[in-house]
Design a protein that fits this description.
Length: about 260
């Protein structure tokens, strides 16, 4: 099994990066792993920490319409170059945290995606240079208020709500280019999304290079690589599981952002 890099909060409230062991204990690192963090003598027992999103980026750069079949289902043309947008870092939550359904929207969709973790400062890179800047991979859900996206004619509000970027559960260093991404809704064993990562229009190296010619990518930043076809709505109470072969499963339940009054 590939090494799984995690970010956790101990019972004492301290934040740590570490290596997750098979018994669920965590070997603590002295710094984020992409900043040359080394294993220390400290180890957290399985019940002594809370799993967080695996990194705390300065920004999340996302890519739209990067699978041809998804562009088709949205009745949109394939972009001639990567279509990028930003999600705020405050939208990030961990696996098993709740996606909060905002009162402003009547249609919130799941979008399972592969996320790239940047390991080195990256600016004006070529695709060949960008390859070495990608430190690792995790799973993401680019949650979207679809009605607001259509209403606003731009994507900031629709994709920027708190909790609209589930990320995790951990980071791995290696990933097969043909690994399969699948999204499951509730207890249905049939995936609502299923595609090979090699079906992307623009591959990860090209995406990182393109973004780096617009903005500097910093260590720990996240790039979301787009979602395949099969996006669809969720309701309060739904459970979403996004799986990528070779990484693991990202699981979140939808709750109302503004619970009904007890009165």
């Amino acid at each position: 099994m590939a090494q799984r890099y995690v970010r956790v909060e101990s019972q004492g409230g301290q934040l740590h990066y570490g290596l997750l062991q098979l018994d669920r204990s965590v070997r603590v690192l002295d710094a984020p792993p992409w900043l040359k963090g080394q294993i220390t003598d400290e180890e957290l027992s399985p019940n002594s920490y809370h799993l967080l999103a695996p990194c705390a980026p300065s920004k999340v750069v996302a890519v739209g319409r990067n699978y041809a079949n998804h562009a088709a289902e949205m009745s949109a043309d394939l972009p001639q170059e990567p279509l990028i947008f930003l999600k705020p870092s405050t939208s990030i939550i961990s696996t098993h945290s709740s996606i909060l359904y905002p009162k402003q929207s009547q249609r919130v969709d799941y979008e399972g995606e592969l996320a790239l973790i940047i390991g080195e400062r990256c600016v004006d890179c070529t695709p060949e240079e960008a390859q070495s800047k990608i430190w690792g991979y995790t799973v993401a859900n680019d949650v979207t208020a679809r009605d607001l996206q259509q209403h606003d004619q731009q994507w900031t509000r629709a994709k920027g709500f708190d909790t609209f970027c589930p990320l995790g559960p951990w980071i791995v260093r290696e990933l097969s280019p043909g690994a399969r991404l699948q999204t499951f809704l509730n207890d249905n064993p049939k995936p609502v999304q299923s595609a090979g990562l090699d079906e992307m229009v623009f591959n990860p190296d090209l995406l990182v290079a393109y973004i780096s010619q617009v903005m500097t990518l910093l260590p720990g930043d996240v790039v979301l690589t787009g979602t395949p076809e099969g996006v669809g709505p969720v309701q309060v109470g739904d459970h979403i599981r996004v799986e990528i072969e070779g990484i693991g499963s990202l699981e979140n339940t939808v709750q109302s952002r503004h619970p009904a009054s007890d009165n």
